[in-house]
């Protein structure tokens, strides 16, 4: 577990997301794989969007993926981020298939980040909330 | 093959408020102002309105805003609801109005939207609207309106080589039209250099790629083509309707570079028995420059990926092959969540209702898009000054 430099944003946990965020606190990136049709999904949901089954397995993602797209925040949309721009939000395609939003941190130069960049996940906390974030692999 | 409902219903009255910063005017008042203007334009009395369609408010929780607004206006509709499709709502309102009248549930449906985000602090904060994916976005500081569209834009640039200068052409065209529109916020002509020099917001979007934040409202009245004959304004007929809502977040969007517009527009074209080649103008929901570009592609005006070069060279300006957002759009006129895209289409088709320099000559058929969230919801309307 690492200390977050980039502030962590607002966390709201509803019923169907409790297990995911608990996993994050244990430094696990949990996905759901449907027992009936085999599709792996993220974000967590009680039903499989493909076949509507409620039966699924927890899958530990390996924590590696590829940048599918990304944005660079130059303007802070929250006052507490003012000192932290520019920062990157990336839509990462995990090797297991699903895509997730996350922050790509500790990059030397923006030019090093491209669609297709390989990334590796780690976990960061601000003392209250833990999130999965990634770095260039 | 023209569907049974095509050409049977018409927009017979429109209203638009001033736009920009409406100090001292409440959201309710802005709605009432727009409603009054539309009902008057239609030559009707309020008591003749028996249907009401509103948006879901963006910063309030009403069980039924339509019920609240009806009471404010002394209306007792036999058909009313809030539609919640984000920016696709105004176009969808025309569809629902036509369907309600067709079903015999009402005869005269008033469709209205108003908002007050520019001077929003004058009213108490009650709620902020959410799409549904925020719990997996906010912890990562994925916040603010431009984020999702910027992510789509970068993907489009990657897949097709679209450039920021090409996006500038869209901003410049909108600004040109706004400069000719007395009821527009940003009226100074824009150059490519100015667009390229405008500050980064969320890369790859610059300030001039992003829509305005505006107070303002608009409304329109729908009734049957039969009744429309006896009304003061030239009727504008609803020929084609479509919707498509393919996803609710970028995490579940594949591909990222096509929105709901492809299927929504195909359905509208089919209903109308027309194609993109028949459209003489387009009022495209333009929350960001890239949104307009993707809509142009999805609506069949050019192949997917060719939008960048296609919008250059004046093609989308009045006088060009497909004038887009002849009022200046969300980018330069005002952001009234697409309502003014519908009323502007009506004005163009009536003829003589806008400044001559931005009137599409001989306009008889036009298309309107509405788009909500981050390419989540989509609605299409084909309107015409003729019944088919």
Give me a quick take on this structure.
Chain A has one helix and nine strands; from the N terminus they run βαββββββββ. With 137 residues, chain A is mostly beta strands. By secondary structure, chain B is an alpha/beta fold.
Task: Give an overview of the whole structure.
The complex is a heterodimer of chains A (137) and B (388). Chain A has one helix at residues 18-25; strands spanning 2-3, 30-34, 40-41, 56-60, 64-73, 87-94, 99-104, 118-125, 130-136. Chain A is mainly beta. Chain A starts with a strand and ends with a strand. Chain B has twelve helices and eleven strands. Chain B has helices at residues 27-41, 65-72, 89-102, 146-160, 164-179, 192-197, 225-228, 261-272, 289-298, 307-310, 329-333, 339-350, and strands spanning 9-16, 51-55, 79-83, 109-115, 200-203, 205-206, 216-224, 236-243, 282-283, 365-372, 377-384. In chain B, the strands form two sheets. Chain B has a nine-stranded mixed beta sheet with strand order 3-2-4-7-1-8-11-10-9, with helices on both faces. Chain B has a two-stranded antiparallel sheet with strand order 5-6. In chain B, helix 2 (65-72) links the parallel strand 2 (51-55) and strand 3 (79-83). The interface between A and B is medium-sized, with 38 and 29 residues. Strand 5 (64-73) of chain A pairs antiparallel with strand 5 (200-203) of chain B.
Average pLDDT of chain B:
97
The count of DSSP E runs of length 2 or more, i.e. the number of strands of chain B, is 11
Q: What is the string of SSEs of chain A from the N terminus onward?
A: EHEEEEEEEE
* Number of helical stretches of at least 4 residues of chain B: 12
Strand composition percent of chain A = 35-45%
Rg for CA atoms of chain B:
19 Å
Tell me the quaternary state: heterodimer
Point out poorly predicted stretches of chain A.
Answer: none
Q: What sort of overall outline of chain A do the alpha carbons produce when their principal axes are compared?
A: globular
Q: In terms of structural class, how would the helical and strand content of chain A be classed?
A: mainly beta
Please give the largest β-sheet of chain A. 6 strands, mixed
Beta-strand content estimate of chain B: 15-25%
Query: Which structural class matches the secondary elements of chain B?
Result: alpha/beta
Total of helices of chain A: 1
């Amino acid at each position: 577990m690492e200390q977050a430099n980039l502030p962590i944003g607002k966390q709201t946990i509803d019923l169907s997301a409790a297990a995911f965020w608990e996993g994050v606190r244990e430094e696990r990136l949990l996905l759901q794989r449907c027992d009936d049709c085999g599709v792996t999904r993220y974000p967590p949901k009680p039903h499989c969007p493909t076949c509507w089954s409620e039966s699924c397995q927890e899958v530990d993602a390996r924590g590696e993926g590829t940048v599918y797209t990304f944005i660079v925040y130059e303007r802070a949309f929250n006052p507490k981020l003012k000192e932290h721009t520019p920062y990157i939000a990336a839509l990462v395609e995990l090797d297991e298939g699903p895509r997730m939003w996350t922050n790509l941190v500790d990059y030397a130069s923006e030019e090093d980040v491209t669609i297709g960049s390989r990334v590796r996940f780690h976990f960061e906390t601000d003392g209250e909330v833990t999130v999965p974030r990634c770095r260039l692999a | 093959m023209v569907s049974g409902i095509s050409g049977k219903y018409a927009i017979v009255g429109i209203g638009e408020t001033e736009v920009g910063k409406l100090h001292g005017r409440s959201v309710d008042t802005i709605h009432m102002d727009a409603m009054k203007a539309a009902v008057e334009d239609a030559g009707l009395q309020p008591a003749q309105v028996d249907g009401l369609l509103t948006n879901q408010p963006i910063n309030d929780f009403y069980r039924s805003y339509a019920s609240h607004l009806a009471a404010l206006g002394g209306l007792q509709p036999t058909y009313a609801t809030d539609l919640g499709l984000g920016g696709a709502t105004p176009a969808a309102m025309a569809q629902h109005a036509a369907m309600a009248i067709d079903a015999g549930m009402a005869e005269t449906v008033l469709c209205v939207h108003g908002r007050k985000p520019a001077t929003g602090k004058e009213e108490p904060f009650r709620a902020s609207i959410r799409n549904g994916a925020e719990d997996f976005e906010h912890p990562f500081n994925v916040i603010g309106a431009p984020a999702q569209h910027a992510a789509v834009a970068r993907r489009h640039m990657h897949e097709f080589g679209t450039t920021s200068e090409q996006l500038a052409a869209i901003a410049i065209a909108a600004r040109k039209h706004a400069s000719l529109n007395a009821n527009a916020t940003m009226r100074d002509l824009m150059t490519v250099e100015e667009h390229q020099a405008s500050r980064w917001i969320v890369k790859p979007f610059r300030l001039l790629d992003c829509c305005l934040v505006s107070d303002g409202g608009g409304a329109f009245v729908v009734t049957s083509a039969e009744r429309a004959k006896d009304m003061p304004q030239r009727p504008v007929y609803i020929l084609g309707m479509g919707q498509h809502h393919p996803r609710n977040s970028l995490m579940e969007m594949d591909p990222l570079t096509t929105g709901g517009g492809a299927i929504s527009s195909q359905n509208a074209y089919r209903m109308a028995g027309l194609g993109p080649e028949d459209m003489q103008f387009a009022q495209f929901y333009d929350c960001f420059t890239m949104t307009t570009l993707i809509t142009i592609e999805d609506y069949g005006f050019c192949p997917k990926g060719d939008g960048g070069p296609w919008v250059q060279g004046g093609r989308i300006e009045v006088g060009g092959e497909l004038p887009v957002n002849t009022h200046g759009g969300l980018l330069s006129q005002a952001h009234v969540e697409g309502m003014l895209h519908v009323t502007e289409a009506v004005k163009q088709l009536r003829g003589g209702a806008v400044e001559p320099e931005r009137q599409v000559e001989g306009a008889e058929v036009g298309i309107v898009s509405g788009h909500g969230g981050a390419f989540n919801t989509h609605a299409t309307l084909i309107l015409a000054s003729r019944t088919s």
